Amino acid sequence: MSSSLHSSREPSASQTHCDGSNIPAFFDAVGTIRSIFPSGPSALIYAQGDPAHEVFHVQEGTVKKSVLSRDGREAVVAVLGPGDFFGEECLAGQPLRMATASALTEGTLLVIEKCEMFRLLHGSTPIADWFLSHTLARLRRIEDDLADQRCNPGEKRLARALLLLARYGKNGERQRVLPKLSQTMLAEMVGTTRSRVNFFLNKFKRQGLINYADGNLTVTNLLHRVVDEECNLQ
To answer: In 3D, which of 45, 50, 75, 29 has the Cα closest to residue 185?
Structure first.
């Protein structure tokens, strides 16, 4: 995997006082910058079963996390974008990776060694607080995903997945172009079949909730109407 290295160095006094907006800039000074690509050997960031020694922060691009079952079936458990951490389970004593992480688009990752991450968390209360808020938000997302899978029909699950991939709530944009994802991958994410995903996408398009142009999928925030609808849509 091609990469370029940022030399680690001690943070200055101004860098140790972080308020959430300048923490990414602080982390730039302490890790290794690694380029990722959606094809070839560089697509793989780490594989399920690899030793877990690093924490990753997505700076640019899109990353997929998936789990492979014993019978060879793959389940997509997360699609991550700029600002997201992953691999932080190593901080809780997990010795091996429980999922595979790979690049969906070109981008860059900040890679922080486990021991360095511990030093940061122990040495700066603002950083520890910020990272804790990230971890709690991830936990809430996982709980919401579980509830979504058990309680909502496939149409709502797909609408919610598209809104999350578009990262609504992160900004005030009315529409956003998604990274290129196959309908098979979307089906794995929402727990339905590819044919059902195709049916729902065509329905969303007819309703003006999503758009296709040049092979790209654009999601509008009007898709919230499907998620907020109380009746059974399937």
So the answer is: 75
Q: Output 138 or 41, whichever has higher pLDDT.
A: 138
DSSP calls for 26-64: HHTTTSEEEEE-SSSGGGEEE-TTSB--EEEEEEES-EE
Strand partners, 218: 177, 211
Same domain for 181 and 82: no
- What pLDDT, on a 0 to 100 scale, did the predictor assign at position 99? 94
Residues 84 and 192 in one domain: no
Of the ranges 3-17, 49-63, 146-160, 164-178, which one carries the lowest mean pLDDT score? 3-17
Does residue 143 share a domain with residue 86? Answer: yes
CATH number of domain containing 121: 2.60.120.10
The CA distance from 30 to 44, in Å, is 23
What's the average model confidence in pLDDT over 91-106?
92
Residue 200: pLDDT band with limits 50, 70, 90: very high
On whether both 181 and 121 belong to a single domain, the answer is no
Considering its fold, how many domains does the chain have in total?
A: 2
4 bridge partner residues = 33
Query: What is the residue range of 25's domain?
Result: 3-148
Contact 134, 81 (CB under 8 A): no
Could you tell me if residue 234 is inside a domain? no
Question: Which has more pLDDT, 128 or 22?
Answer: 128
